[in-house]
Amino acid sequence: AKRTRRGSTLIYSDDMKGEQERRLMIGQFLKQAIKAGEFALAFQPVVAASLDSIDAHETLLRWNNRVLGPVSPDEFIPIAEETGEIVTIGAYVLDEALRQYAASGLAARAGKLAINLSLLQIVTPGLTEQVRAALARHRISAHKLVLEVTESIFDDRNSSLINTVLTGLHKDGIEIHLDDFGTGYSSLSRLHEMPITALKIDKSFVQKGDAQATAIIEGSVLIARQFGIRVIAEGVETLEQAQSLQAIGVDALQGYLFSRPVPGFQETVTVNPQEQL
Ligand code: C2E
Ligand code: CA
Ligand code: CA
Ligand code: CA
């Protein structure tokens, strides 16, 4: 809701009401979205810093509701987390992404398959079995799967349960990447508490490009080396950003410079000349 000084209380509360109503509507519509066939998956390549291979494709959920039209995941994922619907939606994403990855015939050449996981999925019993069953169903090796988790895994009362679940998945051969790194409250010193195999530097640091943001990226690379884990930078839009990240020693790059999230998997990527400007 927009706070306006001049606006009367009525306008303010109307605004609030509109926002609240939209949230409720989204929550309701989300319950039917799978059945209604309203979800689609987009995939965005993660490119090795040497630019000679694709490390992975990240799965990003898209929703086009019959009434609301396209709704951004930044808007509907938090609502799905609040209502609990993310558990069902997450299971759908996992199965559908693996299905498309297997059906593409590119699993051998398109790098690994990365999927975003919400905290609620991790603390809901059955995730490990669900992941194993989906991998088996589509005949994909656990070594091909990356699960992206956020720093919320450190902040939870359930951290020992979370550790047990993630450690089990990691022992299967699945990679666990820490997403949006630098935006949360996880201190670097807590990294060893979870089986993290890579840090994904949040795009805000990549795009700021000032001395402070650069220092944070450099520091993350140094720490990651100490822990023997990799560093991925997201939100890379310009050649200048890519070159600076390569110089810092980041292992992999992801962003519009290489490709927007699109349907299907890519075997090669080229720098998008439009984004170079
Ligand atoms: P995220 O996991 O941090 O994903 C990266 C976001 O940055 C994506 O937004 C992607 O489209 C966008 N992006 C990629 N390259 C660039 C770039 O060069 N510049 C800019 N400005 N943005 C770039 P998207 O697809 O809107 O997703 C937003 C968030 O929604 C994701 O952030 C993730 O937290 C969540 N999300 C998306 N799909 C899923 C899902 O299947 N499950 C869960 N739990 N969360 C999801
Ligand atoms: Ca992610
Ligand atoms: Ca991210
Ligand atoms: Ca994010």
UniProtKB/TrEMBL annotation:
Signal sequence range: none
**Keyword presence, Transferase:** no
**Domain EAL: from-to ranges:** 23-275
Q: Keyword Cytoplasm on this protein?
A: no
Q: Which domain of life is it from?
A: Bacteria
Keywords in alphabetical order = Coiled coil, Membrane, Transmembrane, Transmembrane helix
Protein name (database record): EAL domain-containing protein
Q: Which organism is it from?
A: Roseibium litorale
